[in-house]
Sequence to fold (109 residues):
Amino acid sequence: LAEAAGAQLAPHLYAGPVEWAANVHLGVSRANLLMVEAIESPFHDALVAGRPKVENGFVAAPEAPGLGVELNDEVATANRYIGDRLHLEMQEAPCDWQNPNRFTGGSAD
Fold:
């Protein structure tokens, strides 16, 4: 739909490195890709093996089966979230959708 309308795609990265791998696969399959968001950190490197890497502003899709990444269950289990709030609720004041605000992030849980 977006391609037929001349619109570009920019998949949002919301859920971490497994979603990142899926977004990379989506991106390399579409001619109208504008960009793919990336979050690179030592934690994400430990959480997922085979994660796509940004090199000179470009990313190649993993060549391993499936999404091409392997979740490290030990790291995931050791860092599981046990709270009950969504990330947009993890700030002192809730998001105000009608006025500008900044997400400060972080969880007190």
About this structure: The CA atoms of residues 85 and 107 lie 9 Å apart. The first strand starts at residue 48 and ends at 49. DSSP finds three helices and two strands in the chain.
